[in-house]
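Progress against Task 2.4 (sequence-to-structure conversion) is shown through the following example record, which the project officer requested during the mid-term review.
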Amino acid sequence: MIRIIMHGCRGRMGQAILNTIRNQSQESELFQLVAGIDSKVDGTDDYPAFQQLDQCETEADVLIDFSHHSSVPGVLDYCIKRNLPVVIATTGLDPEEKEALVQASKQIPVFHSANMSIGINTIAKLMETLIPAIEKDFNIEIIEKHHVMKKDSPSGTALLLANAINDACDTKKDFLYGRHSTSDDCKITDLGIHAVRGGTIPGEHTILLAGPDEIIEIKHTALSRTIFANGALRAAAFIRNQEKGLYSMADVISGRGKENINHAK
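Structure tokens generated for the chain above:
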């Protein structure tokens, strides 16, 4: 049984993870929520819940953070003090917060991904094979769509995909965020990233590869937040078995590290 502390338990993703844990079948029960942390807890939760990190002394195997990027340094400090592996699923991190991940990973196992979907991360992995074959002849654009409450733009997932594309390129792309007031011709070295916001769209990302007389579209649609909850829990099962270091979903997909999810009970 993997004991989870959920930081950001009252948020949309926190609730999705809690529901996923609650909906486990008894035969395959793998995860246990042992505590939740959120400034909005009010004593009505049916699990131990705290408003502040330092109020929680509950023993656990992993902490999952789905909160706000400004909370990440405090979460990392808390986990370092407790020698607790951590999954940082929060997006929109600034350069200082990303550096905090690197520094924390020198002391504890830290898992971070801009998107917890296995599908998105598999597409990112696919770029290693696809891009070298078409780089010289195809223009590449990324279009991302999210709900009206989405704070960061472009999304962390769009940047994850853009960076995966760039990592696979011999000649690196210049990122263009929209094309407003741009009158220059589209260069083969441009990579346009476009954000759409509306309604309750959980998340949709399209990579458009346009070449001479042919077009390739790779599209991922999140139909619910459950896919991100499942990915975060898989990350928790992975990171609890690792040595100190910085890990991502690419490590899970590639089989690196000491993943032992099937024998974690």
